[in-house]
Structure to design on (189 residues):
C-alpha cells in the first residue's frame, strides 16, 4: 500500500489524500509523515503552522507535568486550591489565569510575533527556535539538532493529546484527578 501511495503522489499517512507541495518540500522534522488531510498548508505558510504546533506542544508538555505535579504535591500557600484541571481553572480564572494571560500575551507580542514573521519571510530561523538553550539540549552538530527537533515535535503532539485525555477522563469520572483514579483503581466512569 505504501508503494501505491508513493506512485500516485498521495500521502504516506492518509493514502487517499494528496500531499500538499508545502509539506513535501518543507524539510521540517515530522513532515515526512505527509499528514495534512485538510490541505491547510496549501493556503497558510507551513512555517507559520509549525511555529504554532511547537508553541502549543511546549505548553501541553508543561501542562501535563504541571497537572501531575499539582495532584501529587501542593505548596503550603496553595493548600486550599483544587488539584483537578476543571477545579483549578474555575478557581484561578479571575486571578492567576488573568496574570498568566497578560504575561504570555506580552511575550507573544514582543518576541513571538516578530519571530514568526521572520520565519514566514524566509530568514532561515527554525520555527519555534528562540536561541534559548541554556542546558545545551539541542547538541552541537546538525544530526543532534534534527533528532531533538523531531523529538520535540513528536512529544508535543503526544502531550496535546494527553492533556485532552486527562481533561476528558476527569470530566467523565466526576472530577476525580488522574492520580486519585490510579490510587483508587477507578479507571472507568
Amino acid at each position: 500500500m505504501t508503494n501505491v501511495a508513493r506512485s500516485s503522489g498521495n500521502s504516506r499517512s492518509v493514502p487517499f489524500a494528496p500531499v500538499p507541495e508545502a509539506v513535501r518540500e518543507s524539510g521540517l522534522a515530522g513532515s515526512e509523515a505527509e499528514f495534512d488531510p485538510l490541505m491547510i498548508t496549501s493556503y497558510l505558510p507551513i512555517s507559520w503552522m509549525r511555529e504554532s504546533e511547537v508553541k502549543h506542544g511546549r505548553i501541553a508538555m508543561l501542562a501535563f507535568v504541571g497537572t501531575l505535579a499539582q495532584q501529587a504535591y501542593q505548596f503550603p500557600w496553595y493548600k486550599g486550591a483544587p488539584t483537578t484541571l476543571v477545579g483549578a481553572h474555575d478557581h484561578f480564572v479571575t486571578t492567576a489565569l488573568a496574570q498568566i494571560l497578560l504575561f504570555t500575551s506580552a511575550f507573544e507580542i514582543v518576541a513571538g510575533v516578530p519571530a514568526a514573521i521572520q520565519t514566514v519571510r524566509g530568514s532561515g530561523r527554525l520555527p519555534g527556535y528562540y536561541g534559548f538553550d541554556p542546558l545545551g539540549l539541542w547538541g552541537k552538530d546538525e544530526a543532534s539538532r534534527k533528532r531533538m527537533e523531531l523529538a520535540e515535535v513528536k512529544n508535543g503532539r503526544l502531550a496535546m493529546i494527553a492533556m485532552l485525555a486527562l481533561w476528558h477522563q476527569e470530566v467523565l469520572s466526576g472530577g476525580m484527578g488522574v492520580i486519585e483514579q490510579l490510587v483508587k483503581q477507578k479507571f472507568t466512569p
